[in-house]
Amino acid sequence: MSEFDLIRRHLTGLGAGRDDVLLDVGDDCAVLHVPAGRELAVGIDTLVAGVHFLPDCDPAALGWKALAVNLSDLAAVGAEPAWATLAITLPDADEAWLAAFARGFGELAAAEDVRLVGGDVTRGPLTVTVQAHGLVPSEHMLRRSGARPSDLICVSGAIGDAGLALKHLLAGEPVDDYLRRRLERPTPRVALGEVLRDLATSAIDLSDGLLADLGHVLAASGCAARVELERLPLADQVAAAVAEHGDWSLPLSSGDDYELCFTLPRTAAGQLPVLAAAAGCPLTTIGEIEAGSGLRCVRADGSVWTGPDQGYDHFS
User: Fold this and answer.
1) Of 47, 59, 254, 274, which has the fewest CB atoms closer than 10 Å, so is most exposed?
2) CA 274 to the chain's CA centroid
3) Annotated binding site for ATP
4) pLDDT tens digits for 227-272?
5) Any bridge partners for residue 83, and if so which?
6) Neighbouring C-beta atoms of residue 308, cutoff 10 Å
7) Residue ranges of the domains in the chain?
8) Binding-site residue ranges for Mg(2+)
9) Residue 28 to residues 11, 23, 46, 86, 122: CA-CA distances in angstroms?
10) What class, spelled out in words, does domain 3-137 have in CATH?
11) In CATH, what is the architecture of 152-305?
C-alpha cells in the first residue's frame, strides 16, 4: 500500500469527534479552535524501537502507550487533552501492524476525548513521535516551580511496576498481567491533573524515575526534600523485589511509571481522600519539601539510603 492509502485507511478520523477541529487529517495543516479563556498546552515525545520499547512488542499496546506518555505530560500541567498529531516511521508498509497500532492509539484517544488531527508517515527504522495538545483555564496551569518548604510530597498510583516488568522481560523471565499492563498500557492521570489545578503547588509526571523527576521540581522551586521510603506506594511484586535485595533503586529510579508527583500545602492534607476519589486513583504522601537543596531518602530507622539519583538519560 502507498503512504496515502495507509493514512486514509488507518489514521483518518482516529479518536473522538470534536467540534473544535475545523480541519484535520487530509489537509496540509490542521486548523483548530482554541476557546476563549483557555491556554494551549503542547507536549511531544518520541519512542524509538530498541530504546523505548522492545522491537517485538504488541503494536496495539505501543499505539496506546505512544499517546499515553504525552497525555501524562498534559496531566502534569493540569490540561484537558484535546488533539494529537502523529509522525510514524515504518520499516515497510505492514498494514496489519499499523491497523493494530491505530486500534490501540484510537482506544485511548476515544476514552480521553482526543482527536488525531495530522502527522506524517515515512519509511525507515521504527520510530513513533506524538505531539499532544491540551487546554487549561487561563492562569491555572500547574508548574514545577511552586513547591515551598513544609509542602507535602505526594504520588499517585504505585511506582516501580514498569521497571520490574522490563527487568523480567530483558532477563527472559515471565511477566504477570498486572506488571505487563503497567509497562505497556500506562494510565495517564488526566483527571488528577485537572482536580489539582487550584490546590497543588507543583506537579510533574514520573517518566524518568521519582528521584530524577522530583529533582526537577526541587531545582525549579529552589528547595530540598525528604522522602520516607516506607511510605512509597509499592505493588506486592515490587515490595518483594525491594525486600529481597534491599535496593530501593527499582521504585526510585527505574522510570516509565507515568504517575504524577505533586506537592500540596500541609493545610490541604485532609483533602487527599477527596482528590483521590475525584481522580479515581490512590494518592499517597511520601515526604516533605524542606528549605535548602538536595534530596534525602530516609529508611524507617532514620538512616539515609544512598543510591543512584539520576534517572534515564539518552546521552549519559
Assistant:
1) 274
2) 22
3) 119-120, 144, 207
4) 999 999 999 999 999 999 888 999 999 889 999 999 999 999 999 9
5) 115, 133
6) 11
7) 3-137, 152-305
8) 28, 45, 73, 120, 205, 208
9) 15, 9, 22, 14, 16
10) alpha beta
11) Alpha-Beta Complex (3.90)
